[in-house]
Amino acid sequence: MTASDAAFCVHCGQQSPGGSDHPACHNPRTALEPPRYCTFCARRLVVQVSPLGWTARCSRHGETASG
Fold first, then answer.
1. Phi–psi pair at 31, nearest 5 degrees
2. 9 with 3: CB under 8 angstroms?
3. Minimal CA–CA distance to 11: which of 67, 32, 51?
């Protein structure tokens, strides 16, 4: 799966046309938050936040981490 396959918002889980962020979730506050929903299937993610960053895991698509 590639980034172009992404169809859901990582902050609210709603469908995003073309995989891009929709304006409702595109603000300074959400830019600092870890993702809460999988971009490929809109499932809730298991998120672990630490002082060094965060990791988010989807039961179907695996783990992502802050860069």
1. -65, -25
2. no
3. 32
* pLDDT, position 3: 53
Cα torsion angle, 28, 56, 10, 36, sign? negative
The whole-number pLDDT of residue 62 equals 93
DSSP string, 7-66: -B-TTT--B-GGGPPPGGG-SHHHHTSPP-B-TTT-PBPEEEEETTEEEEEETTTEEEE-
What local confidence, expressed as pLDDT, does residue 16 receive? Answer: 73
Are residues 51 and 40 in contact, defined by beta-carbon separation less than 8 angstroms?
Answer: no
Q: What is the mean pLDDT of each run of 10 residues along the chain (67 residues)?
A: 69 74 76 90 95 94 90
